[in-house]
Amino acid sequence: MLDENLPTFHLRPSSDNIKHNASVLLSQYGSDPTPAYSLRHPDPASPGSKNRYAVALYDSYNPEILYGEVLLIPDWTQPSLSQEDIRRNGGVPPAPQPILPSSFVIQLYNPDQQILVQQGVSRWSATPQWVFEMPQQSFRQPSISSIDRTQSDPTASETTPKLRFKWKKEGKLSKDYVCSLSGKNTNPDGSGRKNKEPDITLSIFKALKEITMYEPNLLRVEMEDPKGLEVVLLLSAIVIREVYNGQMRETFNVSDAPRRLSNERPPRKNSSDRTHRQRSDLPFLQTPPPPPSQRPPIQNQTPNPRPPPTDPRSQWEIDAETTRLKKQVEREEHERRRAEHAETKRVRKMLEDEERRARQKQIEIDKETERLKREFEREQRQAQRNTKPPLPVRPNASLQPNFAPSNYPQPPVQRPHSANPYLATGPYMQPPGGIGSSSTVFGGPSSSARPSKPSFFSRLGHSDHSGQRLSKKQSAVF
Fold it and tell me: How far apart are CA 436 and CA 430, in angstroms?
């Protein structure tokens, strides 16, 4: 601080903790800094603040009072037509870069006027300087004449005398800037420079942090609007600090160029299947649909909040993003075709391996079959060698029928007593005619034993039994 008795404006961060806003505090006569103005910048995240710089000066106690503002849109470099640069940039021309403007306009309100600030270079020290002019008369003279009311404001009239002000850097290595009022030329014809008054220092911008006003010198300025001069001094100093002494990309809110396709990450997997599975697990809603008369009307989609491109940088960003998306789609299509080809090749190789394993297994089965066949034939030949010769054939075995009795004597066939129906046991079952008076039940032998009948095979004998014939059986009951 040069002098605590002089009015000094301090640039501090905003009390509302908004990064892109700031506060201007005023201190004088050794008092503590108190809020005097509020600096506001547009939100860097909003689409309307891209590729431009804007600042406004508001009242700190009444945020609806706007004193002045600055809007600065830079110029842009022409796109390069070199094929080498286009190839290095991924198939799109390099991004246009902002060009630092050599002038800006400060818009004042109540009364409305525009102050043009132009950048130049000092002739003696080759340091940068910014020059602007302000009219001495800013308000209309009170008049009841209707003709005076139809005339234009003094600020817009070319005949209104103006004062010339200049911001100048004190040295090439210094960060201090001095604003001075250019001295008047006392020569009547304005040709000579010997009669020019010296410059009057009005303000010093110390280390780009504090703006000190020389109040005694401000009283020497012949102007009707000292408040307007104060606002112009503050806004011009802030623009010089942020635009001409700051980072150009951050000042104009220039977005980074889209990344090259080689540096991009692979596309994320589509989550529609996962979302569909999650939704399929949820129960179905049982709420019936509303009737057609009660259905809410379909609202139109909200328009895109971003304004149409008004500068080459925005148009280049749109073209670069379109090209990037096209190449990304082509790359994804190529990756998909390559994946399908790899999958087809894998399936074909798997089928070939299965067929080869099946053929190998069939060959092993055929070898095992041949081995078992040879082993079986070898065992069969071994068994034939160890087999005994067959027995000789018996004589007359083929001449006699199968049912003819042999020449050997056969014993008589003895039928059991139970087989004879006439020897049935029981006290009541007696043959008619009184055959057998004694019962076999009581152990008595039969007095008249029946002669034994020849057997069936004996009846079919040779000539010695040819005289006997088969006799018809007679019933013992009837």
Answer: 8
